[in-house]
Design brief:
The protein is mainly beta. The protein has strands at about 1-5, 10, 15-25, 35-40, 45-50, 55-60, 65-70, 75-80, 90-95, 110-115, 115-120. The strands form two sheets. Strands 2, 4, 5, 6, 9, 10 and 11 form a seven-stranded mixed β-sheet that branches. A four-stranded antiparallel β-sheet has the order 1-3-8-7, with no helix packed on it. Strand 4 (about 35-40) and strand 5 form a beta hairpin. The radius of gyration is 13 Å and the shape is globular.
């Protein structure tokens, strides 16, 4: 399975952006997915995750109410809609997927990773 993340860029505080993560290869719709963020000197952090069906989602407290994870299993694509962006949202965003259907919170449990897409939010 290969994951291709896209949609990052430079945006002003208060703006919106949508990240996409397209899966290819031997994909399955029955896998959990997640969006992680990494900033210099910090560990990769789960920002948002979803189980295979989208019925269970997770958001880190700092993005609750502003970010929304969604998935289109027919297109093998996962999205992260980011609204009301803040400078502290800046980072390298990775999408990841597991072989399991249940939502997972630890980066070490994810089996497949995209290449990362940079988000920079200016104040």
């Amino acid at each position: 399975v290969q994951l291709q993340a896209s949609g990052g860029g430079l945006v002003q505080a208060g703006g919106s952006l949508r990240l996409s993560c397209a899966a290819s290869g031997r994909t399955s719709s029955r896998n959990a997915v997640g969006w992680f963020r990494q900033t210099p000197g910090k560990e990769r952090e789960l920002i948002s995750g979803s189980n295979w069906s989208g019925t269970a989602t997770h958001y880190v407290d700092s993005v609750k109410g502003r970010f929304t994870i969604s998935r289109d299993n027919a297109k093998s694509t996962v999205y992260l809609q980011m609204n009301s962006l803040k400078p502290e949202d800046t980072g390298l965003y990775y999408c990841a997927a597991t072989k399991a259907p249940a939502l997972l919170l630890k980066a070490s449990l994810y089996d497949y990773w995209g290449q990362g897409t940079q988000l920079t939010v200016s104040s």
